[in-house]
Design brief:
Strand content: under 5%
Strand order of the largest sheet: 1-4
Mean pLDDT: 83
Number of helices: 14
Structural class: mainly alpha
Amino acid sequence: MKKIKLSLIGSLMLLMLIFPRQLQLAKAIILFAILLIVIIEISSGKRFKLNRHVLYFFFFYLVYAVYSSIVGLINNNPGVGPFAQLNILYYILLLPVVISISDTKDLMKMFNLLLLASLAISVHSILTLLVTLGYWPIFLYVPFDATNGIQIHEGYIHIVNTNTSMLIILVPISLLLIDKKVVSKKLLYFVIAISLTAILISGRRILWLSAGISILMVLLMSIRKNKKSIFALTLIGISVFVYFASEDLIDVKSIITRLTSAFIGEEGDIRYDQMRYLYSGFLSNPIFGSGAGIGTEYVRNQDYPWMYEASYHLILFNAGILGSLFFWTSIIFIFIGYFEGKFDLKMKYLATCILIIVLLANSTNPYFTSSFDFIIMILIPLMILNTSKINTIIINK
């Protein structure tokens, strides 16, 4: 039963990563099967381990989501339903997935499986670019992303594939596996190299930042043990970057400007306008917020006018100071769990690094607060936390 459940969890994670916002029926069936197995296991007396800080995260996050939904209902906000479905229902349904991964060996099996996702997404992203530029025959290319495409701007290229964003969390995980037991070290190094290549050509600012932070952390922790491997990967990455810069496909000055504007914005920038309007809306109801499912005078998405990229400003606008405290309390408990948890040193630091990267990414786009598939970005840090050997609660004791 356990092997079947782990296989289903691995399949669900692969589908969420490689096919975001697609094949939703297949994901629903797999999730239902996982829930059914967990219910059977509990009814038959099987014990589950749940880290206290994972429980605290779910409790405070759900309090934030319920609070925002209630305020939204009181104000008759049009988008309360989708918000509640994502932030209440989906999080509750995914809790059994988290509690099913409570052993480091099971976690490493999932991480090894995720190498396939990194490989598939990276190859697909690179081929998308090569086909667009005419360097790869289109009959040897199978697009499988919902928003498949390339935008070529002055000084940089922008890969708009939705699944490319998943490299935000997949690359740090791949780097974490460097000194762990994996299926093949050669495969691991190849996946890391091709993933970094995909990130370099992606034009995605948060991907550059996530890769940079991850590499820096690994270098600081592993440089003595893996000098040759780390040097080789760094050299490959630098070489690819220099090549694209020499071909005028990348403008270094534009990259720096784009990287900083992703967070602070600038006059006339889309995110800057979002932040300004959302903060202005927050000031009109700072304590209780405006409730979930409503936007401001500035509309980013005509189909979903209550959705914005500046996610933390949106949380402040929707939930006010009161609701935002619940949201940030849930996040703080994950950090506390990492600090107090019993992991090996590299796992502890890289898990913290992954969470920081996820939070930075979520500030530029509402990943784990706007889409079922992107909940995986917070799900994986919670799975890591649940493998801690202390601060645990036994379910079905």
